[in-house]
Amino acid sequence: MAPRQSATAPGTPMSLARSRPRHGEQVIKAILLVAALVSVATTIGIVVSLLEPTIRFFGQISAVEFFTSTQWGPLFEPPHYGVLPLVSATLITTGIAIVVAVPLGLGAAVYLSEYARPRVRKICKPVLEVLAGIPTVVFGFFALSFVTPLLRGILPFEIEIFNALCAGLVVGFMIIPIVASLSEDAMTAVPSGLREGSYALGASRMITSLRVVLPAAFSGIVAAVILAISRGAGETMIVYIAGGGQPNFTLDLGKAMQTMAAFIAQAGSGDVPIGTVDYNTIFAVGSLLFVMTFAMNYVSARLVRKYREVYE
């Protein structure tokens, strides 16, 4: 019997089609490469723009004073350049925000992924994500005009008009969609076979969600939480409006505080002469905030790679 001719033999139409250059595909690759290079170039540009003024700042101000002093007042006489009040305020408001956002966000993600019907999920998830599109200045005035009076009326301790507690709570509500949406995506990507195996062993839906789905989606959930932390640490308008502009080094949540982002907004919108030490403080604080968020993103990437589950 004569050998059967291959469908991809030279000279056949299919072979000619495969060897024909695909110019459209090359154009798409070039566009994607340019997009990636723009992201890298933007990051490098941010570092370069922060580096020179920061170096000039530390050429005039001691790094020991900057990182250890608890008094911050570069625009007053005599000036003080201790950044610890700004760092502590940033960590406190971000911590409050995470305490609010992680339980509510994970609860919403578990419901949407494991309990909600497809029709309910199609309605609830876009409504939840609308929260991420609300301008932060609206959140700030909402915190100042509604949340602060509410807290002052129900809490037993004294709360000032501008306070860290209100700012942290509202920042937490703002980042709920980040935790909920990304965590729900991670849990939805868990293979259904794991759920079916758990149900076959007699586990309830809650046990399956908590002991099977959540551990399997752990890397994606960690990435969502770290991204939410970075977003909360860099939030400006909410803490600028509701948190006040007083750099107090205190743990009293009812007092006004000033975060690093709030100081950058305040100093950048003022009449600080360009090239002065006061002007360079903006870049020094911005560099520190950049390093902090970069470190959190690096830790997030390491955790995601370490705990990533690969399913076939």
Automatic annotation (TrEMBL):
Q: What GO terms fall under cellular component here?
A: plasma membrane
Biological-process GO terms, alphabetical:
phosphate ion transport
This protein's UniProt keywords: Cell membrane, Membrane, Phosphate transport, Transmembrane, Transmembrane helix, Transport
Q: What is its main location?
A: membrane
Q: Which SUPFAM superfamilies match?
A: MetI-like
Annotated Gene3D superfamilies: MetI-like (1.10.3720.10)
Q: What membrane topology does the annotation report for this chain?
A: Multi-pass membrane protein
- PROSITE patterns, alphabetized: ABC_TM1
**Subcellular location, in the record's words?**
Cell membrane; Membrane
Which region ranges are annotated with the description Disordered? 1-21
> Where does the sequence pass through the membrane?
27-51, 86-112, 132-155, 161-182, 212-230, 279-299
Write out the function statement from the record.
Answer: Part of the binding-protein-dependent transport system for phosphate; probably responsible for the translocation of the substrate across the membrane.
Recorded hits in NCBIfam families, A to Z, give: phosphate_pstC (TIGR02138)
Q: What family does the Swiss-Prot or TrEMBL record give for this protein?
A: Belongs to the binding-protein-dependent transport system permease family. CysTW subfamily.
For this entry, the protein name equals Phosphate transport system permease protein
What is the protein's species of origin? Nonomuraea cavernae
Tell me the organism's taxonomic lineage: Bacteria, Bacillati, Actinomycetota, Actinomycetes, Streptosporangiales
